[in-house]
Specification:
single chain, 267 residues, alpha+beta, five-stranded antiparallel β-sheet, 8 helices
């Protein structure tokens, strides 16, 4: 008898809500921590009365899951909102394990209830943050794709890892053929040596780059573009380059015409 008293005392000292039920799922024991948490004596929650502890919106689901557990004879984690002594419903995790007789029949269920309200709130906050971030990223993507310039980003070695929709539309190619170093295939052969030299020099020795060059469009025509990019380092120390290519074909033609006029005047 003293041994049972010692066991009960130890169970009451466990910093978790311990409980047990009969083989058919009727609550027949709850330790002191459990009773203090819910603010009720065992007599008020014994048998099927323990369902009164759960949030009304969770009761039907929890009853169904408990029946499924008893049928399968396999314990698993179940989550629901439990009413605390102060009347607040808090998310809790219910974990249980069956005790079998020699024939493999369940003669008792033992379990614990763990308050996971703080974890739930953290998970909810994380989901809300992810949702807000996804919405922000989608809005940013819409803005970037609507800009009337060719927007791009590149890795520290100079290979492209992003181009906006305007870039794809101009080139008439899928992103896979432009990313990495595929964009070089679209540059005018006469411009590539100088452009690559400037690009690699700025990657090593500067935090920005500026150059001009001709890019072939979907119609096969080369047009002059002004390239401007800047190196950015995020909070994790990751380096990326972001930039735009602006169509200056008309400006270049005007400058060429002006130079030709000035040359003619000098002659």
């Amino acid at each position: 008898m003293d041994k049972h008293k010692d066991t009960d005392a130890i169970i009451d000292l466990i910093p978790a809500m311990a409980w047990s039920t009969t083989s058919d799922g009727m609550l027949d024991f709850a330790n002191q921590h459990f009773l203090e948490y819910v603010g009720l004596p065992l007599a008020d929650i014994a048998g099927e009365n323990f369902y009164r502890l759960f949030h009304p919106d969770d009761t039907t689901r929890l009853a169904s899951e408990w029946r499924a557990i008893m049928i399968s004879k396999i314990g698993r984690e179940v989550e629901g909102r439990l009413r605390r002594a102060d009347g607040e419903y808090r998310w809790c995790s219910l974990r249980q394990k069956p005790r079998f007789d020699s024939d493999g029949d369940v003669i008792k269920w033992y379990g614990v209830v763990l308050d996971i309200e703080d974890r739930k709130q953290a998970e909810d906050s994380l989901r809300e943050t992810k949702s807000a971030l996804a919405a922000s990223e989608e809005n940013l993507r819409l803005i970037i794709n609507s800009l009337p310039v060719l927007v791009w980003s590149a890795r520290p070695d100079g290979s492209a890892d992003f181009v906006n929709q305007n870039w794809l539309d101009y080139a008439g190619l899928p992103a896979a053929e432009i990313l990495e170093w595929g964009f070089l295939d679209l540059y005018h052969p006469d411009d590539i040596p100088e452009m690559v030299e400037i690009w690699k020099r700025d990657l090593e020795h500067s935090d920005h780059t500026r150059l001009k060059g001709r890019i072939r469009g979907a119609d096969g025509t080369y047009r002059w573009f002004y390239f401007a990019g800047r190196k950015l380092i995020d909070a994790n120390g990751v380096v990326r380059w972001f930039g735009v290519n602006i169509d200056i074909e008309n400006l270049q033609c005007a400058e060429d015409a002006l130079r030709e006029s000035e040359a003619a005047l000098r002659e």
